[in-house]
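Input:
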Amino acid sequence: MIDRDEVLHVARLARLALAEDEIEPMARELSAVLDHIARIGELDLADVAPTSHVVEVTGGLRADEPRPSLPRSVVLAQAPAVSDEGFLVPSPQA
Amino acid sequence: MSGPEILGLSAAAAAAAIADGSLAAGELFELYRGRAASDRAAGDDGLNCFTWVADEGAAGAGGVPVAVKDLFCTKGVPSQSGSRILQGYLPPYTATVVEKLEQAGSGVLAKTNQDEFAMGSSNENSAYGPVRNPWDRGRVPGGSSGGSAAAVAAGLAPWALGTDTGGSIRQPAALCGIVGLKPTYGSLSRYGMIAFASSLDQAGPLTRDVADAALMLGHMIGRDPCDSTSLQMPGPILAPSAESLSGLRLGVPRELTGNGVEQGVLESFRAALATAEQLGAEVRDVELPHAPHALSAYYVLAPAEASSNLARFDGVRYGMRAEDAQDLLEMYTRTRHDGFGPEVKRRIMLGTYALSSGYYDAFYGRAQRVRTKISQDFAAAFEQVDFILTPTAPSVAFKLGEKTGDPLAMYLNDFCTVPMSLAGIPAISIPSGLSGGLPVGLQIAGPAFSENGLLDAAHALELAIGFDSGAARV
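Output:
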């Protein structure tokens, strides 16, 4: 079971605001899924190596050759707010 | 050629007609563009397959146009991954596989609706409304590539591009009565695909028939310097031609063909096995002892990767931003609250929890080990058989709203498709027949890079089953 405080802690880690009426349903839904997932705890996996990626890729790096990047104006065109040719954000400490 | 005649052509047949001069590429493009635009204009009265359709007079690319899942970045075309947080986003570049299709003559006809960030099995998680199943408008098309599947089944696009993380090509293909192929992980570049779970995400075709799937796959394969996990396949993709399964050993894992699969689906599956035997295949039981745990491992690993991938949506560089935040942290948290839908929030929370201090070993670490066991199960099975057969989805298309209140019930749709995703192996879904008037999917899976053999086996079965791919055309 995952409780209200745990939901709020994880939401803080995820940089996700939750409205008051979203907290209890989130706790309930996550608990149901985690109960199901917890069944993997029954397996004996002591000597099993973890898999992070199924395909072995060696020499996957491309040649380190400089290429032109996208023009600044193109990149900034999709930003919600810009200033002085950069991304504009609220102050970290208002 | 008349409109209905053109509409009756498979993508491969249309490509051949263009090549021999009996069909003009511009005419083909405009026919489908008009049909797609009508669906979009119909709003709630249509199927809601598309989030964007090419303008009248668009040039096409000289071949058979393609509908592209919304999450593929397409330069200057809205690419929103079904999410409000990317509403109106116009990428400055195009995904590699979309570029490759354009180079092969397949211009972008439309962008297709999908579950938000590819998280879902019913297309009800789209910020742009649910897609309807052309077989029954009161039912879901499956997901997450629901718009792509419904568009092909309804004849609103000749073929479509989708992505599959845990079944998102195969399950909607099954529920809409078409063909869907998840290729070997790495055989197609992920560059320009808006990421969900990077170690699982794979693009692939949704098509009317197996030959079309082979043709589209052949256009897209290849190592890409922009995706360091992409691979060169051992050889070209060939047009499938097999009409027999003689000499093939087909395995049936009881772990994925019993409990939890509805009766009508099982009956269609057993009939397909009988057809396979008539075609000369030897059908035998195989064991995938860890397959029942695949779903649990998947719902740790995929959300964990998603929680990391989706950290980039913070209201700074693209997409929406919450207004009037007092400081930077509030801007982040409120933007993500307002921009993400409920399922995406659940997965971000689940993934963050699984990766957080104190839970990492119990969830993420164990899930990675289960993934190893599942790969080993498949490797052992493929020493005894050439391919593995299961139903694609445990049920036919369900009603809109039927499972939205129960995330776990929704996740169980992926029960038969997730094991192959975790192992990175190719799997195709073809229609095996109808149950209660709705299509049932047959899944055929093979070892990594077995695409040519897989497509041949699927082709022989398709021919013998004789499913009418045009039955749901609108």
